[in-house]
Structure formats: C-alpha cells, structure tokens
Amino acid sequence: MVGIVLLAMVAAFLALRLYAVLGKRTGHEQTFVAPVEPPAPAVAVSQSEEPRTLPTATADALFEPDAASGIRAIVAADPGFDAARFVEGAKSAYRMILEAFWRGDETALAELVDDHVGAEFGAAIAARKESGEVLDNRLVLIEKALISDAALDGKVARLTVRFDADIAAITRDADGKVIAGSMDDAVTTHDAWTFTRTVKSADPNWILTDTDESA
Fold first, then answer.
1. Does the pLDDT of residue 115 top 50, yes or no?
2. To 5 degrees, how large is the angle CA 190–CA 188–CA 177?
3. Which of 11, 61, 114, 177 could form a disulfide with 57 if both were Cys (CB 3.0 to 4.6 A apart)?
4. 179: how many CB neighbours lie within 10 A of its CB?
5. E strand or H helix at 85, and its extent?
C-alpha cells in the first residue's frame, strides 16, 4: 500500500514539472515547419500587378536566351502573359493550322492566320486543287517547341516559335493513288512560326503572321 502511494506522489510531481516546462496547450499552437528556399527573383512589373517569375533558360526551357529580354518586355506590358501557357497554345495552333491547310479548309485558316499568311496558304491550296492532288498528311509528334525570338513593338507582342516535328506525308492524285510520300516514314521538319497579339487586348488569341522553314 505504501508503495502505491509513493508511486502516485512521484507521478503527480512529474506531471507538475511537465506543466511548468511546457505550459498548458490551448489548441492554437503553430506547428514547426522546416525553412524553405527563398523564392527566385521576379520580373519587375507595374506596382498594381503581382510580379511574375520568368522561367529559367535550361536545357528543356521554354525559350532561347536571346528571347529573354523580349519576353521580359512583354511580361512588363502584360503581366497576364505566361510563357508556358503560350507555348502549349502555339503547339495546338501549329497542329490546327497544318491540318486545316492539308485538308484545304480556308475558312478555318482565316481564324488562325493573318491576311498575308492566309493568302499564301490559299494560293497553295488552289494550286493543289487545280492539279487534282490531295494531301493525306499526319502530324506524328512535336518533338520540341521553343520561343526563339520575342519583341514588343509598341503594343504588339511578337513571338517566334521554332517547331521540330515529325510529319508523315502522302500526296495522292485525283484517283487516290499515292504519288509521293509514305505514312510509314515520318519526316522531321523544322519550322519557325511568328505569332502576334496586341497586349491587354480583349481577344486572347495569337495570330500567325509569318512562317519560315528553318534548316
């Protein structure tokens, strides 16, 4: 019996010591978290806008080093611009424009390209129809899409994207006979397409204004 009383007294003493050291928990204590690395420097923008961090130019970057200053200018003029989202949109536009051109859909092209590019595509489509040829092409893979040049001309943002893509191409005659190409042998193509948009425009779409086949 004496032993039990002594154990109870020791337990009470330890409880009082713990209370004195730790204090009473209230349910509002903050949990300790490990410190995090400081954020990357942000690109300077207007004080009324949240600063946006410019992606780092790495091996799998969104842009080439020479395009960095132009992208900074575009971000400063339009903080809503996002390079990653733009590149994804450019890849979608690349596919849609090529497929519209291949099937000869000038109405679809008119919504995606400016008048100059539309006229060039239209002339090629007309020549193809006149010769009775039909393109049976397929975009197999976009291996890389990289912003190679960027500039802000007044209120107009201009971005050039270099596409490396694999395309399976077949040209058929009026009777459907294959006269060139093969669907089993994709060809690697290198294109440089330039898109423009007026910054802070209510229209979010970028328009294709120039095309060039790079080496």
1. yes
2. 120
3. 61
4. 11
5. helix 83-103
